[in-house]
Amino acid sequence: MKKTLIAIVSIVLVLALNVGSYVWGTKLRSNKEDLNQLIEKDTEEAVVVNVWMKSGNISNAIRIQLEQFNAKHKDIKIVYRAYDDDYYNMLRTSLVTENGPDIFENSYDWDLLKQGRITDLDELSLNLRDVRDDVYYIYDEKKIGVNLTADAGMLIWNKDIFKEAGIDENTSIKTWDELLAVAEKIKSSKDDVIPFGLTMNSFNMEDLQVAVGLPSAAMGNTYPSLWDYRKGQYEYSNAKDIINFYKNLYEKELIYEDFDKKTADEKMLDFYSGKTAMVLVGTGNLSQLLYGLPPTFEYGVTDVPVLESNSDVDRYFINPSTTFFVNSKSIKNHKKKEAIEKVYNYMLEKENNLQLLKSDRILTIASKNMDYTSSTIGKCIDIDNYEVPIYDPTLFIGHNYVKDYDLINSVIKGELDIDKAIKDINDSYNNEIKIIKDVGGLDLTKYKEN
Q: What's the CATH number for 154-317+391-446?
């Protein structure tokens, strides 16, 4: 009976695999036919360069720039398309079926990289003279893309609340000890205000990057992801001081009691409403203040505080993105390759990046010697001293960040020993790295700085 049951299960599994393969194959063929309609072919008058992006503020701005390129060039025609939530599935299917765009935004698909479907930039004739050295997207020691944009972390404060608490409203908080002193003064004079609106909600990845990653990275040797670029491993012990600091704030009732449940929108609403005096934000939240409903009070903006006040502070951008890759199939045709090179060079031009920066909605980072003071963000924080975490493999590692949040939040609430939490997070990363090594994946020894 047992053997019969095993045989039946085996037959069912084989049939399921065959049906699945048939359905997948049919879907691919169907998608290939659909995608054929999306990829325009060269004409007698012009070489067509198909450019795909994910929809958003940056895509709308770049679309306008590409239209300006088309107006000036008759021999090259850029066909631009932007897609919503299904973008990455469409992109992957298009590349696998060899019906993909020539230039496309952000694809951190490990399989596509291993299959060689993305071009090494060294194979192209590009003018990279004005491109920053740290904005390249590195895979297997090859430059395969350029990060055009990024986010930055900031501390913002309500100047009215500062004045009412007897604090100089133009105080620029540099260290976490200074923030503690200000928070205690606010609490003693305004018991209806949360002094520091810390949020650590697992639904908002930015919380972990800005609140834990950036203060830890400022100390040296790690990126905001807690990747130790000297040792070539994740090291959460570097976050010990900032986590303990938040624990102290929680014990003193200087942050939200439900800091682990508060969303980013709720935090910003509280700031708008004068219910919290100081919050950590990313570039997107600052744009919300600049271009959304203006608050009824003046506010200040400065860099994320550091644990120790000294001149040797490592500051990093977070979420380097809007990375454009080139389809390796497209460059096999010489004319197409030349057209792609012209379009890619155009997208990297300093004037175009400066135009995006001045919009105040986009923090462009690709060009050297940018005049960041031409943007509101650049007037608030010292962007010239920010770096891109160029040797960070985090995008390739399927890490469970929800667990990180749970462990860190338990420490802040006093429910868990910090050494136990750090060990668990480090062990989790080490296990994921072991899996990567076992399947012959990414060589993490190449993600180290000298």
A: 3.40.190.10
Domain 43-149+320-381, second-level architecture = 3-Layer(aba) Sandwich (3.40)
Structure tokens at 232: 């070539």
Query: Taking the complete model, does pTM exceed 0.70, yes or no?
Result: yes
CA 302 to chain CA centroid, Å, is: 20
Quote the CA–CA distance of 417 and 402 in Å, as a whole number. Answer: 18
* Segments of the chain assigned to CATH 3.40.190.10: 43-149+320-381, 154-317+391-446
Q: Answer positive or negative: Cα dihedral of 259, 261, 262, 263.
A: positive
Contact 131, 344 (CB under 8 A): no
Model confidence at 361, pLDDT cuts 50, 70, 90, reads confident
Q: What is the pLDDT of residues 205-260, one digit of tens each?
A: 889 999 999 999 998 889 999 999 999 999 999 999 999 999 999 999 999 999 99
Crossing angle of helices 240-251 and 401-412, rounded to 10°: 50
Separation CA 220–CA 449 (nearest Å)? 12
